[in-house]
Amino acid sequence: MIKIKNISAQETYDIRLAVLRNNINLPYKFKEDEHDNTFHLGAFYNNKLVGIASFIQNKTEAIKGEQYQLRGMATLPEVRGMGAGRLLLEEAKNILKTKNIDILWCNARKEATGFYESLGFIIIGEEFEVQKVGPHYKMYYIVN
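User: That's the sequence. What structure does it adopt?
Assistant: Structure tokens below.
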């Protein structure tokens, strides 16, 4: 069974490096990691951290309303398909509702858009390229 807990920014770094920055020379620490309004969630399986996500108070001009940005979401390959990502986002939505946030948005890697769409996220705008990473889409979810 997977459990979701609040974690520190530092606890996200190993999985960010292994999954999101594997052989990519880009920073794995985000300047917003330690902001007061930022929170980080971890998915634990058998008491091992197997999934992470960071939630940053940040706006995109493409959408109206109070917003948070999802950044650095990743799960270890051995637990993919077990629901860790879905559980991370469900917990985040509950937290964001208490903060009266309207929209959760992200820049999703093209290969992850199906996952996000299955959870109710909507693509907005055209595909764009993130240097060294590849094609992305901006996606959003209506929280409230």
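DSSP finds three helices and seven strands in the chain.
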